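Bench notes, afternoon.
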Amino acid sequence: MLAASTLAVGSGSAWALGLPSLGDGQSLTTPQERKLGDRIIKELYRDPDYLDDAVLTEYVSQIMASLMKVSEERGELSDELKDRYAWQVLLGRDKQVNAFALPGGYFGVYLGLISIVSTRDELASVLAHELSHVTQRHIARMIDQQGKMTPLMIGSMILGALAASRSPDAAAALMMGGQAAVVQNQLNFTRDMEREADRIGFGLMKPAGFAQQGFVGMFDKLQQANRINDNGSWPYLRSHPLTTQRIADMHARIGKEDGAEPPASLDHVMMVARARVLTKPGVEVLRQYVNETKDVGFADKSLNRRASAFYAAALSGVQLQDYALARDAVGKLKPLVQGNAAAQRQVQLLAAEVEMAAGKPEDALRELNAGGQRITADAGRPELLARTQALLQLKRGAEMTGTLQTWVATHPKDSGAWLALSRVWNQQNQPLRAIRAEAEAQMGHYDYAAALDRFKAGQDLARKGGGDFYDASIIDTRLREVESLLKEQAADRSLN
């Protein structure tokens, strides 16, 4: 979805995007759509609500990856789209219930949405729907239907819609002239597109390992919110308006033999708890999360409820800087997840997070190594970054050099990993490599001007004798690539 997202964008940002030349009334090609998405997503990376939480991002991205695999097998995801598009999931900290797709295969998911889904299947239903908008190229088709529109208008429309729910005045300023009301309607997908995304997304669920009942469960939640008059916290309803036809169609597609929606998994309820705490709900709410574990009758609640409550209490303890409380909650959570590998892993990561926040990197490493596994580039990104953070605190960052280098070689757009590697190289007194890693981090967020600045700084250092010939050659090559990208952007702007 494009409309009513809540990632705020500065009121002048649309005018500086330098959007690609699309031509008047011509079909949007896949390279043009990717380029348009890259320019828009750069603004979202800059937004203070953008959240690079390794744990939640991995959880959502793994669900999306399972859906993409099935979409490819079914022929919905073409080889061209798979190769050309970004296929990146971004998280927003906002409490609003929302998710959206952008040109070029970018997806946004708000913590508010994760906070209300009962099961991973409901979350998968939203992602499957958004994925289908992209694989069916609804965004390109929608833009093409508008007729003669300049790239500047398209960028302004999208960025205006992205700002709309947080600041209607800023959104109106971003949109072109007096066309704000018309633009809002243009950015909503047609009813046919919505039904097509429902149908195709529904078909992805079962082969990807998700219960199709998740679609109905999510629809029921949206319908209930619609009945009690949406108060602005459910922007998903405005850009994906429910119709009786859509609801009836989903119910009809669920066969009687499919039964009820399966219960939530332990790891899912903990991810929901994490999302709720990371929205920064305020001190009083955090204390409520802590106090729930002390309620009379708490021990009689379901396993899922207790696990969720202890996870929320532990993370709330971190936010409140009450580390004794956080450790106590983790200690009570650990026996609840014994025998459940996915849940145990999340508790292990949480325990390490608590110790790092408490300034105990040695204890954090002990928690990460509790299972006896060795942290390699094959480990998950949360373990990789957590271990790097702990070792850097202990002045032992060099131990992660090879692992991080292997990781960024296969994940070249991972800005967080590049920044971690920069700190590791700085700790090893290798400033030229550290500067290069800083530049690559900026490249990962499509901030080519900032990357150019860092590559030039590296080039200057190399001329003064810093680093070796190999590192200097890499920086020279990457500098020329960035200069070419910036020239391309300038050419695009001149054509608008």
